[in-house]
Amino acid sequence: MSEPRWLSPAEQRAWRTHLAVHKLLMHRLDRELHAHSLSLNDYEILVNLSESPGRRMRMSELADVTIQSRSRLSHQISRMEAKGLVVREDCRDDRRGTYAVLTDEGWETIQRVAPHHVRGVREHFVDRLTDDQLDALVSAYTPIIEHLKKLR
Amino acid sequence: MSEPRWLSPAEQRAWRTHLAVHKLLMHRLDRELHAHSLSLNDYEILVNLSESPGRRMRMSELADVTIQSRSRLSHQISRMEAKGLVVREDCRDDRRGTYAVLTDEGWETIQRVAPHHVRGVREHFVDRLTDDQLDALVSAYTPIIEHLKKLR
Q: What is the sign, positive or negative, of the torsion defined by CA atoms of B139, A135, A51, B26?
């Protein structure tokens, strides 16, 4: 293998900045959700289910949209079942499939916690960027998302 | 609590784009590192130790720079010890302290894997952004990093 093109100082700074902002942000939002007995992973599942028809999604689809393995999602859903937030249901029309279904308690939880979470997202991220910066972020990252999705 | 200011469609798009690019990117880079029997978490520890004097860091400092709890880092280091990449050593000048120290095998591993990893970082991120976009990223996110560090 030939010598790689190492990152320039400017590239390295950008890369490390990207990593740092994300890590600090997730750490902070996760901690704020803990005050409501949720993790950021729980929250993401609740949002996805709450926005789906019948407040349910196939486990395979949920693993796909939350970008995690089936086995990791399965553990996550088991923990959320124990907290009464979701239940598993077999698909009637597909013997191999299982749904994750939001319970009434899960629905009430997302309704109650979402206002707090959105305040955190604003305080720590969205309100600290101008409209132009938000648009630039979408322009810069959307092609990268398209590229990475093709590789999955 | 008053009604929160929900995210506008543009804000929501930016926020979800930020989350998606990071998740897909980490997923991809982690997967590429698996070909070298490392995780992205392993890699981050190896980089930090390899750049430190004596190729060692106090566990408390390592937890701090990698933004994770002491207990989570401790599990991580135990897994890496089992792979022969690091060892723990007591600090001579501080009975309460423990160092994580890179082994020769850990050093050789990071030297061997870094060229592959930097190719991935370029292919999936850095080379897909212009110099201006990289600079804009640093300008936009540095104040957020400063803000979040103050809250820790």
A: negative
CB atoms near residue A4 (< 10 Å): 14
User: pLDDT 10s digit of each residue in chain A, 152 long?
Assistant: 578 899 999 999 999 999 999 999 999 999 999 999 999 999 999 999 999 999 999 999 999 999 888 999 999 999 999 999 999 999 877 777 899 999 999 999 999 999 999 999 999 999 999 999 999 999 999 999 999 999 97
Which residue(s) pair with B99 in the sheet? B58, B89
Point out the residue among B24, B122, B148 whose CB comes nearest to the CB of A25: B148
CB pairs under 8 A between A and B: 144
Q: Which of A136, A121, A112 is nearest to A26 (CA)?
A: A121
Longest CA–CA separation in chain B, Å: 58
Please report the ipTM that was assigned to this predicted complex.
0.92
Handedness of CA A97, A103, A106, A111 (dihedral sign): positive
